Amino acid sequence: MTRTAAQPTVPTPAATAATAEDADGAVERALARLPRVIDLLAARAAEHDRDGTFPYQGVETVHEAGLLTLTVGHRHGGPGAGLADTVRVLARLGRGDASVALLAAHTLLHHAEQARTAPWPAALYRRLLTESRRGPALVGTLRAPAGRPPGVTAHWQGNAWRLGGRAPYCPGAEALAWLVVEARTAEARPRTGLFLVRADSPGLEIDPAADQLGLRAAAGHDVLLEDVRIGTDAVLLPRGATPAPDPVAVAWHQLALAAVLLGTARAALDWAAGRLRDSAAAHRRPLGELDAALTGAEELVHGLAARTDADPAAATRAPAVQLLAARTAGDTVQRALTLTGSAGLDRRHPLERHLRDTLSLRAQLPAEDAVLDALGEALLGG
After folding, report:
1. For position 77, what pLDDT does the model report?
2. 144 falls within a domain
3. Are residues 315 and 230 in the same domain?
4. Residue 203: left if φ>0, alpha if ψ -120 to 50, beta else—which one?
5. Is there a domain that residue 348 lies in?
6. Do residue 251 and residue 375 come from a single domain?
7. At which of 236, 263, 280 does a domain end?
């Protein structure tokens, strides 16, 4: 990837104030570049999907537009975009290429969390920002599926942790700068924590075996770790029991991915409408129903994102909203296929890709049963 320049890593107090005052302008300038970025992503999305090749050019285009570092906090010289603006960006990127949007989402979420709670040690985060000045610095997270123990174990040896194990399906594995790896310690009382791992660390290998149904350009390969050394400055371990999930962090994650889903569904509906334009009279009403439902889901996600920015207490509604959005996105694409018939399943057209991408994106979100059980339990307990 070509290296580009960006903001200073450690701004002076005056620079920080100026950045905060200019935050809205920085975000709007980045948003103004979105149409061109989406066109470039869409132009090559089918090629990357067909070949299963990583969209290096697309990721670099997103970075050069300032969109990959949009959530870098003010104190680090970044625009400090909130959840509402992040959702806007990801929904639009999802219309261009869902794989690139997913990769951008993961990186934006890490910068946003650093701006909120600063989990990364300062020195390592400065390093990440330095790399982000030179070019796209993608960050991925390796977590075990809900309800399963991590596939990576951390052993304490000498004065450092050593990681070993296998983490399946890591989007962007071949192009990440950093991995945030969930691992379980080999202690008498095991703890589960996060370990910050450089992608070029000795002992870390990528198993290029990914052959996913959708999000094929995201290159969700397995990551193998064999005696990967992690210094104590790169470990985020709880002192005792694992803390309860932070509702705001959960909302950022779920609404960000829901936005990508909705953007993908919107691209599918746009294509179906264009395909059916010659028979508009017969399809006007069913297309209108799909548009109404999708618009409602978009308003829910965007509205809750804005509310969460204003009042963190609103974050508790994210699981219900993302579930409704995911259902609507999936239903929109499948009904668009019904309307377009065999043309929608033709691999020369994008609709079948959008179907596969929405199915894969939904797998990135919590299972419906788990969400509904939790909502019902809270209601009965309340």
Report:
1. 92
2. no
3. no
4. left
5. yes
6. yes
7. 236
Res 7: pLDDT: 36
Whole-prediction pTM: 0.91
What sign does the dihedral 131-257-309-243 (CA atoms) show? negative
How far, in whole angstroms, is CA 26 from its chain's centroid? 21
Give the angle 248-309-373 at the CA atoms, nearest 5°.
35
**Cα distance between residue 60 and residue 53, in whole Å:** 15
Within the chain, strands assigned E span: 138-142, 152-157, 160-170, 176-185, 192-198, 204-207, 221-230, 235-236
- Does 145 map to a domain? no
What φ, ψ does residue 187 adopt, rounded to 5°? -120, 165
Q: What is the mean pLDDT of each run of 10 residues along the chain (382 residues)?
A: 36 41 76 95 96 95 96 94 97 98 98 96 96 96 84 92 93 95 92 93 91 92 95 78 82 98 98 88 91 98 98 97 98 96 92 97 94 94 75
Secondary structure (DSSP) of 289-350? HHHHHHHHHHHHHHHHHHHHHH-GGGGGGHHHHHHHHHHHHHHHHHHHHHHHGGGGG-TTSS
31: domain range?
13-136
252 vs 90: CA distance, rounded Å: 12
Contact between 120 and 114 under an 8 Å Cβ cutoff? The reply is yes
CA distances to 22, 55, 210, 312 from 13, rounded to whole Å, are 14, 38, 46, 27
pLDDT of residue 382: 61
Q: What is the CATH number of the domain that holds 67?
A: 1.10.540.10
Contact between 331 and 267 (Cβ < 8 Å): no
